[in-house]
Design a protein that fits this description.
about 150 residues; alpha+beta; Lipocalin; eight-stranded antiparallel β-barrel; 9 strands
Length: about 150
């Protein structure tokens, strides 16, 4: 009986430690806060992106655009878009709408993932006040902390 209780205690402790590690891992706290893109996108306008613990949201010229979750590993940042904003309806559309849209465009599952869950190489410099995101195709986006 004592061995069974000890084993149960060890399992509970291991599960608890595993849950704590997995719930707090893969997020770089240096990203937390709001960042403003240093160049204005000719199509979309001025972008702001806010990183909270595990969640992000961006806007262009103050109008909501997209939101989702993110993870970091090493110098890679993966943003998974879970919702996008539809100004005409003044509400958020969910991931299934995004996937449906992509399929209607003839995109493969891989293209949908790449478009809506991109991975960037990222770096933070200048006393944690400058964020650089580099897409796989080489496009570079620079942001300053707001």
């Amino acid at each position: 009986m004592a061995k069974r209780s000890l084993l149960l205690g060890i399992l509970v402790l291991a599960f608890g430690i595993g849950a704590c590690v997995s719930s707090g891992s893969n997020v770089d706290s240096a990203l937390l806060g709001t960042w403003v893109r240093t160049t204005i996108d000719s199509l979309w306008g001025l972008e702001e992106i806010t990183f909270e613990k595990k969640n992000w949201q961006n806007s262009f010229d103050g109008i909501n655009n997209a939101k989702g979750t993110y993870t970091t590993e090493g110098n890679e940042l993966t943003r998974k878009r879970t919702h996008y904003y539809v100004p005409e309806r003044k509400n958020w559309s969910n991931l299934s709408d995004i996937e449906t849209f992509g399929k209607r465009q003839g995109w493969t599952a891989e293209e949908i993932t790449e478009r809506f869950s991109p991975t960037f190489i990222y770096s933070i410099s200048n006393d944690d006040n400058m964020l650089t995101l580099t897409e796989r195709d080489g496009n570079i986006f620079t942001y300053t902390r707001k």
